[in-house]
Write a structure and sequence with these properties.
46% helix, alpha/beta, 9 helices
């Protein structure tokens, strides 16, 4: 009997390890979620109600605070995040930042360091991090490798591909670097798969 039970447990562990379901962050219904980033978080290319934080809020049934600032580079973002967390308490931060550093060809090592400092800052304030991978500009888009490196280093739940995939679809873009309402909806749906509300 014990042998059958043990074999069943091992099988379940193997199957769960092979699951294609993404890792999820667990939040309570009364949690405060902060969407922190640049123009892609702000929702440039669509109305405020069509931004990804607004659409994610509707999907999850939780208020998602939109703290996206168009044109911001990671150095300024780190300073702004520090000010924000000094006076506000949140449970989860969706971190989608760094696109402007890559567009402006700022030092990549500095971008990674700023993102790492943002992650440390969020975690030191007792919040979880959902890290979003941002693509580097190219004809064929691919996510900048630092995001995967940081996700592994800090053992973060992450979405490394959705934004890159969506920005590679002209039908989902409002211009060369921003999504449209439909694109932001698809982005919100992808992020919702990584958040479990209990």
């Amino acid at each position: 009997m014990f042998k059958v039970f043990f074999q069943s447990v091992v099988l379940l562990l193997i199957l769960s390890g092979c699951s294609s379901e993404p890792e999820r962050i667990i939040v309570a219904k009364n949690s405060k979620i902060l969407a922190f980033g640049d123009s892609l978080t702000q929702g440039v290319g669509a109305s405020k109600a069509q931004s990804y934080p607004s659409q994610l809020s509707n999907i999850l049934g939780i208020d998602v605070i939109n703290e996206g600032v168009s044109g911001e580079v990671s150095e300024k973002g780190l300073q702004r995040l520090e000010r924000y967390l000094a006076t506000n308490t949140v449970d989860l931060v969706i971190l989608c930042h760094g696109g402007n550093d890559l567009l402006r060809k700022l030092p990549k090592a500095k971008l990674k360091a700023n993102l790492a400092n943002m992650i440390n800052l969020i975690q030191s304030n007792g919040a979880q991090v959902l890290l979003v991978g941002v693509p580097k500009p190219a004809i064929l888009l691919s996510t900048f490798p630092a995001y995967e490196e940081l996700a592994e280093e800090y053992n973060l739940v992450s979405d490394l591909e959705s934004l890159t995939d969506l920005l590679g679809s002209p039908a989902l873009k409002s211009d060369g670097v921003h999504l449209n309402a439909q694109g932001y909806r698809a982005f919100a749906e992808a992020l919702a798969k990584r958040i479990n509300v209990i």
